[in-house]
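Incident log, structure service

09:12 report received: a user says their structure output differs between two submissions of the same chain.
09:20 pulled the input from the user's history:
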Amino acid sequence: MGLGIQMRRLGLYFLLACTAFVSMPSVAREETEAPLTLDHIGFSVSKLDASVSFFVDTLGWKRAGGRPDYPAVFVSNGAMFITLWQVENPETATPFDRRANVGLHHMAITVGSLQALHALHQKFIARGDVVIEFSPEFAGKGPRTHMMVREPSGLRLEFVVPASKVKQNVGFKN
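09:34 re-ran on a clean worker, output below:
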C-alpha cells in the first residue's frame, strides 16, 4: 500500500474520531474537558528528616510511603500529597532565593480559622527550626489573613485564612 493511501486512511480515521467526539453527549465531553487539578507537588529538601517532621509532627500529616533508595518520603493530609526528595549533597546544595531563582516561589495552604492559624504560628515558634518570615497579618487590607514561613529545609509556605472564614470567626456578616 502506498504512502498516499496510508495518509488518506489516517486522515479518514482522524475525521471519524473527531466526528464521534463532537457527536458525543455533552456529559461525556465535559468529563474530557474537566479543569486540570494538582495531583501532587515534589520538593527537593536539604534536611529530609526535619522536613518530614515539619509536615507530620507539626502539621499532623501522615506518611504515605517513600523511596529509601532515593531517598524520598511522601506525606499527605488526605487532600494534598507532597513528595520530599533529599538532595544528593545537602552541604553544597544551593538554597532557593525567591528573587533570583526560577522555580516555586511558595506554596499556599488554606487554614480553616484564625484560631488554627494562630495555633500553627505557636507551633512554628516552638519548633525552633522554622523561620517565620511574617506572623499572622492581613493580606492587603484584609480581612483575609496569612503568614509566611520557611520550614527546616527552607521551603516557603504560606498559610492563609480566606476572608469568608475570617468573617465567620469574628462575627462579621457577609
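09:41 both user submissions now match this output. Likely a transient worker issue. Closing.
09:42 reviewer note: Residues 8-32 form one domain. The beta strands are 41-45, 62-67, 72-76, 81-86, 107-110, 131-138, 145-150, 156-161.
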